[in-house]
Structure formats: C-alpha cells, structure tokens
C-alpha cells in the first residue's frame, strides 16, 4: 500500500507539471493517461514492485527495467525515448548521481578485444536488418538531406576519401574497418592499396568475403589485428567510429601510433563520437550508465577539446574539423526505422533481450545527437611541424562534384563502385 500511495503521489505531480502522450497500466488493471491526446507510449507495470522504477525514472533505471522484462513498454522507439527523457527531466535533478559523470575505465588489449566482440560479434545477419546494403555502421553524410541511407553512407565514404586527398596507388590503413566498405571503395575508385583491421571475427570474415567477391584481393587485405600491432608506413590513415573504444587516458598514445604509421607527407582522418560536456562526462540522467552496462562496455567519450589536445600530444596537427552531429541524428533515426520494420527478424536473430537493448540504444542515440548531448567530428590531420607550403589553401578540394581528390593531386581511375542501392 505504501508503494502504491507513493506512485499515486508521483503520478499526480507529473500530471500537474507536464502533458505527455503516455499511458501507464497498473498491475490491477487501472489505466492512467498523462494528456488528452491518444497515448503514443504505454508503460505496463505487471506487479506492484515494478513501481520503484517509475519513482526514480532515470534512463538507466527504466532502460534496465525494459531490457530485463520488469516492465513492458509499447510504442515507437522515438516516442519512448522522448517520453522517458521528459519524465527524467521533470522528476530528477541533473546533478549528483544523474549528472554527466566522467567514469574512470581501465583498458588493456584483452578488455578492448572482449568489448568489441561483445558488441559486434552478435551476427552479421543481425546488423543486416538495419544497416544499409554495404553495412556501414557509422554516421552517414547527407549532402542535401534528401538522400536515402545507402546513398548517404556511400557519400560519407567518398567525403572521407576526398578529405584525405587519396591518390591512385597510395597505401591506406583503415583502423576499425568494419565490414570493409571503405577499403573496398578506396580500391575500386582510386586503385589504393589498402589494409583494413578489426578485432571482430565476424566483421573480418565477411569483409574478406566481400573483398574476394569484388575481385580486389590484390589491393585489399583484411586483418584481425589490434592497431597497436600494425607495422609499416601508410600514405593515408582513416579511423571511423573506432576511437571511442580507446579510452581517455590512452588517446595521446593512440594518436602517437597513428603518427608513427603515417608517412611524413601523409594525411589521416579520425571520425568519432564526442561528449559535449567539457569535462568529458557521459549523457545525463543515466543514459551513459545504460550504454556502459548493455551496449558498449569500456567505451569512453572525450570532448572535442580533449581530442584535439590528445592529438597534439601525439604530435599530430589538426588541419580540418567538421561537426556531423545532425547527420548522425538522421542516421540513427533511419537505423531505428529499419530496426522496427524488421522487428521479428531481429528478435529471431538476437533474442528478445538484445532486441530491447538495441531498440532503446538506437533511438536513444538519435535523440542524444538531436539534443546536442553527444556529437560527432571528423578531424583531418598530419604530422606536426610540416611545412605550411605543402598544405592546400582552402577546403575546395574536398567538395569536387565527383567526390574525387583535388585534381592537382591526381585524378582517380574510373572503375566499378560500391552499390548505392
């Protein structure tokens, strides 16, 4: 009775402060609506003990309750995330336990490899349900905002290759190559000699299959390898959606490794998610805690300022910085739509618990990027101390109509490209 009285008081307080398209269904059959409009989200408490999750509705508490089956939630993921964030803002203080906490996380090779495999080695078929046909699992690039996901992902790859002014025959290293889309495109379009590395066995196997299918084994090598074990020199280096796994304390060493692998006149590009908190804090109201627990164990987000500082400590100079936050909000929204459209296949492939984790995660990321809780930056860099006379005067070379490199640096050969359909 005490818990039910607390819940009744909490419900009355919320309804006085905010109108939400929310319905709560209690274990005794009672239904409570939080606005006059039809509810877009329904939270069902199957037993009285589940009320404790609502009384402290952090993103971690409610996310955990949903994932573990302590509560049932119905509705589109986008609506679910918006409602839960509104409940958290109305009920909780954005300070103390629910602030943007910067956690101290230990990293070593074994932990990093296990974390990568936990996230990526679900099954390739699982990811195929919501990614584009080329299976690019990072922020797309919407040049006009009207592109479909497949087109925007291909434009992202071309945007990156243009930014690093890739030329025919150059040696390219892609750190965290995923399922191989970038190195395949670089070899097809530019004739680049590419090495792609990943710690995911599933990604490695499928990327190798795709390289063979494209007839590019003479140009592309896919390795199951830690970036710290790579040797040699590369004209160009890309790292897309990987450095979030490195750890804040290890960022200077990470960038120093890139410097050591980069040719003196080479270019590198780091594409990664950042915190918008100057103190490197995670998303508020328990969002970061949920992701640490269920999605990306050992992941850490640095503020852009920290990234640039670490880059300089690694003896790299940043030449160009571009914010793609809006693009990632759109990317995650499209992934969420695909995920929900293939809900039954996802459940079959990943199970009910993983379905719920990714359902919350994808929509939550879209919301976080939309609301400036996290961001995404592409940073082009080279070895510090390089003569300014060797650098281009403007960014114009990045935006040639063909998406090719700066004409003065050599035009790419014509060849078959990755499918955009």
TrEMBL record:
Pfam families: CMAS, DUF7884. Gene3D superfamilies: Vaccinia Virus protein VP39. Belongs to the CFA/CMAS family. Keywords: Lipid metabolism, Methyltransferase, S-adenosyl-L-methionine, Transferase. GO terms for biological process: lipid biosynthetic process; methylation. InterPro entries: CFA/CMAS, CMAS, DUF7884, SAM-dependent_MTases_sf. It comes from Rugamonas brunnea. The active site is at 365. CDD domains: AdoMet_MTases. PANTHER family: CYCLOPROPANE-FATTY-ACYL-PHOSPHOLIPID SYNTHASE. Residues 14-93 form the DUF7884 domain. GO terms for molecular function: methyltransferase activity. This is Class I SAM-dependent methyltransferase. It comes from the Bacteria.
